[in-house]
Amino acid sequence: QVQLVESGGGLVQAGGSLTLSCTASGRTDTIAAMGWFRQAPGKEREVVARISWKNGATYYAGFVKGRSTISRDNVKNTVDLQMNSLRSEDTAVYYCYANGAGATTYWGQGTQVTVSS
Prior knowledge:
This protein has strands spanning about 1-5, 10-15, 20-25, 35-40, 45-50, 60, 70-75, 80-85, 90-100, 105, 110-115. By secondary structure, it is mainly beta. Strands 2, 4, 5, 6, 9, 10 and 11 form a 7-stranded mixed sheet that branches. Strands 1-3-8-7 form a 4-stranded antiparallel sheet, with no helix packed on it. The chain is globular.
């Protein structure tokens, strides 16, 4: 089992920046990748970014590419998502996730990001 705890959400003005952090504990040796999804009210959950635990390869959804950076610290078992130039449409609950052994996916509890225009 892997446990995930997020932090860093909050209220920010449009054009501002925010960094979300996720700390993993438990069987972190089984983690293959970590990343972030988000879910806005009335919309489906969508992937934001992910990073390979082994080689650091990254993926960004089109709507954050060029505005966000995902990074990992394999020693501290943390993943950060720095988001810049935030827009009102970035308002959502952001969920950290981890891909573990046997294609198991673990989820954090979610952190609210609200961008005011």
